[in-house]
């Protein structure tokens, strides 16, 4: 029995973990739906509030009608008394007595609607403030989630392509070395051509007796003989 109980507990724990995983995977979607539901409820609450306020205005109009009617009958009662017709005055007074309980009832009804309307107004305002804050937070959460997903994607792509990047870097360096080698050979050829051109010019100038001449043994011997003769 103890083993079965532990298995059952483990299954319950697994189900709870699975449920939490589902909630975590869809947390933003759940929050967005909850915000939408709250907005729908507020809209319905506002409709109910307008109904209560309408009932309050109707009760207020009925109160004004009854007060005006009672005031008129009080005037009629006074006129009857002034004319000495007490029986008519009494009959009119009975009418007033019948209207006053109705007036009291309407006043109580109006007060009840007023209290209820004020409470609903406060609740609606409070809920709207909370909803506005939740909307702002929802925007921030969705933005953060998008940034995190983008960052994760970039990180994953970089990790997966790291070896390719290294290979591409090596290829690039190899190409650069080959290009540098080609440039060096080209510069060497240019230097060699320049040197050959200078040698040809010097040779032409030497043959024409222009510029410094090449020293030979015969030249040295002639110079020494000239010194001896002197």
Describe the structure.
It is built from 5 helices and no strands. It has helices spanning 2-25, 27-82, 86-160, 162-207, 217-229. Helix 2 (27-82) packs antiparallel against helix 3. The longest helix has 75 residues, at 86-160. It is rod-shaped. The termini are far apart. The model has no long low-confidence stretch (mean pLDDT 77).
Q: Which term fits the overall shape?
A: rod-shaped
Strand count: 0
Give the structural class. Answer: mainly alpha
Largest sheet: none
Order of helices and strands: HHHHH
> What is the arithmetic mean of pLDDT?
77
Concise account of the structure shown:
The chain is mostly helical and 230 residues long.
Helix-strand blueprint:
Layout: H1 2-25, H2 27-82, H3 86-160, H4 162-207, H5 217-229
Helix pairs in contact: 2-3
List keywords for this structure.
230 residues, mainly alpha, 5 helices
């Amino acid at each position: 029995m103890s083993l079965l109980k532990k298995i059952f507990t483990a299954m319950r724990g697994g189900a709870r973990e699975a449920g939490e995983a589902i909630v975590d995977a869809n947390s933003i979607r759940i929050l967005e739906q909850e915000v939408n539901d709250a907005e729908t409820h507020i809209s319905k609450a506002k409709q109910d509030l307008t109904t209560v306020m309408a009932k309050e205005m109707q009760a207020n109009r009925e109160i004004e009608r009854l007060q005006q009617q009672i005031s008129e009958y009080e005037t009629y009662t006074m006129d009857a008394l002034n004319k000495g017709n007490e029986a008519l005055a009494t009959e009119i007074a009975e009418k007033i007595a019948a209207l006053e309980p109705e007036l009291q009832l309407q006043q109580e009804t109006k007060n009840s609607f007023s209290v209820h309307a004020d409470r609903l107004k406060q609740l609606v305002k409070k809920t709207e403030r909370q909803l506005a804050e939740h909307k702002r937070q929802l925007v921030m959460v969705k933005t953060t989630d998008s940034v995190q997903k983008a960052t994760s994607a970039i990180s994953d792509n970089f990790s997966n392509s790291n070896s390719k990047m290294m290979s591409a870097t090596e290829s690039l360096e190899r190409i650069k070395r080959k290009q540098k080698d080609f440039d060096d050979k080209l510069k060497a050829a240019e230097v060699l051509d320049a040197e050959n051109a200078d040698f040809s010019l010097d040779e032409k100038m030497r043959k024409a007796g222009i510029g410094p001449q090449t020293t030979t043994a015969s030249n040295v011997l002639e110079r020494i003989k000239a010194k001896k003769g002197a």
